[in-house]
Amino acid sequence: MLKYAAIGASLAFAAVVQPGPLQAYLLSRVSAIGWRRTLPASFAPLISDGPIAVLALIVLGGLSPVMQSALRMAGGVLLLYLAWRAVRQWQQSERQSPAQRAGAPRTLFEATLVNLLNPNPYLGWALILGPIAVAAWRETPAAGVAVVAAFYLTMVTMLAVLIFSFGGARVLGPGFQRQLLLISALILAGLGIYQLAVSVPVLSQGLR
Questions:
Q1: SS3 19
Q2: N or C, where is the chain less crowded by C-beta within 10 Å?
Q3: Angstrom distance (rounded) from CA 60 to CA 54
Q4: Ramachandran angles phi, psi of 177, nearest 5°
C-alpha cells in the first residue's frame, strides 16, 4: 500500500510543478486578487476530476489484463515523453520570463471549468493513474484507495503551496522553480520506466 501511495504522491507532485492551464490560471488570479482569495481554487481538481475518474475506472475495470497492460505501457511512454518535455522546459526556463498572464476566472466553479477543459486529467486517468489504480485495487482495495487519495492529497497541498508561492516571489524564486522542474523530470522518467517494467512482461505473455 505504501508503494502505491508513493506512486500517487509522485505523480501529483510532477503534475503540479509543470506549467499548464491551471497553473497559468492560478498565477493570473493571484496577480488580480491575491493568494488568500485564490487559495480555494486549489480544490478544483477534486471537483473536476470526479466524472473523469469514474468513467475511466468503469471502462478500465472491464478490460482484460492484457489490454490494461497495454494501456500501462502507453502510459509509461507518455511519462517518458513528459519527462523529456520537463527537461526541455528546465533548459529553456532560464531564458524565459515568468509565466504569462492568462484570462482570469473569478470563482472556484470557473477554476474547476479550466481544469475540466484541460486534456491532462483525461490523459492522466486513461493512461496513467487509472490503470495504476485498477492494478492496485486488484491487489487490495486499500492499495487502490491509497494511490488515489495520495494523488489528490498531494495535488491539493502542492497547489496551495504554489498559490502561496505566487503570492510571495521570495518564497520560490526562479532558480528553485527550475530545480522543481528537474526533480519532476526525474520522477516522471522513473515512473515511466516502472510502468514499462510491470506492463511489458504481462503484455508479452498475453500475446503468446
A1: coil
A2: C
A3: 10
A4: -60, -40
CA-nearest of 105, 122, 108, 114 to 50 is 122
- pLDDT tens-place string over residues 6-38: 999 999 998 888 777 788 778 767 766 778 888
55 in Cβ contact with 121 (< 8 Å) = no
159-181 confidence digits (pLDDT tens): 999 888 877 654 555 666 677 66
Cβ neighbours of residue 83 under 8 Å, at least 6 residues apart? 185, 186, 188, 189, 192
CB 66 within 8 A of CB 206: yes
Matching residue, cell 496551495: 160
Does pTM surpass 0.85? no
Sign of CA dihedral 86, 35, 129, 51: negative
From CA 118, how far away is CA 102, in angstroms rounded? 14
Looking up cell 520570463, which residue turns up? Answer: 97
